């Protein structure tokens, strides 16, 4: 009954999977929210007995209250929420349609707001909790061809600060991780297919290497544990110095 309960959105791959793995290894019961039943089932199989699967498309905002209520009824509480799920699109500014721009903001911002609001209702009732949002280097400086993604992640950082101020009175801390260039299959392929971009990434990263998903997971873990109990509203870059590199 004393075990912590966590939710990780988009926890079936990449940074979300690494975060869920970190939690599960500590004995935290971790609910993985994913859209793909097959991919999520495979993740649960790899994560072991502390992982729980929930299949839901968070774009369906009306489904979110029932989703959170189901977790509360089954687990009894929610201690941690990691808002990791998100989508990107690489496209020239002039070619981005209103629909495409809106779709990315809906997934990356509106769904984060909706699930956070519902989870906060539970956390307020139980007297506290911790939320970690996932941003990006795109919110730290200008990156070409990702206007919608940049707008969404900049919104996430602003939401983090506002949430932290609003929710501190309930014992709820809200922080944010801004990952730099992390070596995942998707990012590795993107950089390897664009040698000029990869060269620029390395040139402005003082540590001269890509990060790994575990670097982000370890930072998330710090922000949800007692060691950071006096930390809220922080945007923490995990980027090998990329955001301050010259």
From TrEMBL:
Signal peptide interval: none
Gene3D superfamilies in the cross-refs: NAD(P)-binding Rossmann-like Domain
Similarity annotation: Belongs to the short-chain dehydrogenases/reductases (SDR) family.
Protein name listed in UniProt: 3-oxoacyl-ACP reductase
Organism expressing this protein natively: Marivirga lumbricoides
């Amino acid at each position: 009954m004393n075990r912590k309960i966590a939710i990780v959105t988009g926890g079936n791959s990449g940074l979300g999977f690494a975060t869920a793995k970190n939690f599960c290894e500590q004995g935290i019961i971790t609910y993985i929210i994913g859209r793909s039943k097959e991919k999520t089932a495979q993740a649960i199989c790899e994560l072991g007995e502390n992982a729980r699967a929930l299949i839901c498309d968070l774009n369906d905002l009306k489904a979110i209250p029932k989703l959170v209520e189901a977790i509360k009824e089954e687990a009894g509480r929610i201690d941690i929420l990691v808002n990791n799920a998100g989508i990107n699109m690489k496209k020239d500014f002039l070619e981005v349609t209103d629909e495409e721009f809106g779709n990315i903001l809906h997934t990356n911002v509106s769904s984060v707001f909706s699930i956070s609001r519902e989870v906060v209702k539970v956390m307020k009732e139980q007297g506290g909790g911790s939320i970690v949002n996932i941003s990006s280097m795109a919110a730290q400086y200008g990156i070409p061809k990702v206007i919608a993604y940049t707008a969404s992640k900049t919104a996430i950082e602003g939401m983090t600060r506002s949430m932290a101020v609003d929710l501190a009175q309930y014992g709820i801390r809200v922080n944010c991780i801004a990952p730099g260039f992390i070596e995942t299959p998707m990012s590795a392929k993107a950089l390897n297919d664009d040698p000029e971009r990869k060269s620029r990434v390395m040139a402005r990263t003082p540590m001269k290497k890509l990060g790994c998903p575990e670097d982000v997971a370890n930072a998330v873990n710090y922000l949800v544990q007692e060691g950071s109990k006096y930390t809220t509203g922080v945007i923490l870059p995990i980027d090998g110095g990329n955001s301050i590199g010259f």
